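Hi V.,

You were right to ask for the full record rather than a summary. Here it is.
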Amino acid sequence: MHRITLIPGDGIGPEVTEGVLRVLAATGVSIEWERHTAGVVSFERTGQPLPSELVESIRRNKVALKGPVTTPIAQGFPSVNVGLRKALDLYANLRPVQNLPGVAARYQEVDLVIIRENTEDLYAGLEHEVVPGVVESLKIITARASTRIAEFAFEYARRHGRRKVTAIHKANIMKLSDGLFLECAREVARRYPDITYDEKIVDATCMQLVLNPNVFDVLLLENLYGDIVSDLCAGLVGGLGVVGAANLGSEAAVFEAVHGSAPDIAGKMLANPTALLLSAVLMLRHIQEGTAADRIMKALGAVLVDGRVRTRDLNGTASTLEFADAVGEKIVKADT
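Predicted structure:
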């Protein structure tokens, strides 16, 4: 029995979460879910977007599955995602980007892994108003954080048979901060002679990704660059609705959908649960349930290739739960 913290989120979060739970149940993996609220729902009920009870639950269970949570723009409460990463030291964001069978995309045979430092840099949101009309944001880069994310990237590459790690930077302009990031990456790279290492400026990387993404393998990035580039890469294979993500630390792991909470369609059962399902697949592999993960991927591919049950973003008419149930039925039928 696995005990896992569940954060359905808000907006479309509860709908896609329910769909994913149905698919997971079809695999027969024994999971006891410990439910907690976060974001808008929690803020309205308790005045806290990230309750301490939720953080303690993840610390205790070590693993969480999280639906999308609304982050107010330019006002309101701080990002729940950033808060969780800081509170639990989830220093590595992992986003595999691959084509799914039956999903139209601008590129085919894409097979990238985005590894993003998750705790510092500009994305950490350390900013203040110096005087009225002048705001300062702090970009903090440390040797400790840069070294451990580089170690994570090279260990991941070695463990998964990857051949190259590319460090992405803007050290031609930010010579000290991005320069330190590169120094740490180079030092770690020397310990992995079996993995090719190279470096590329972030703007040139974005151009190359839209010209020929297949020249990359594992991309190693600071926090803000990683946030932008990982979404760009999702666009190569069909969008944020068809990629999953994990936030990993030494003591805990949170697996989450990478898309937003889409409050405009909340409650209408229009959302595609695939992104959260792919995150759940990463979670299953993390808890040593690889066979179940493989069964979900096979069933998902079969439903997508068949094409009769698709959500609206994939040019279909199926509801969130109809799509999830179709995947679950494929799993059950494969067992009989």
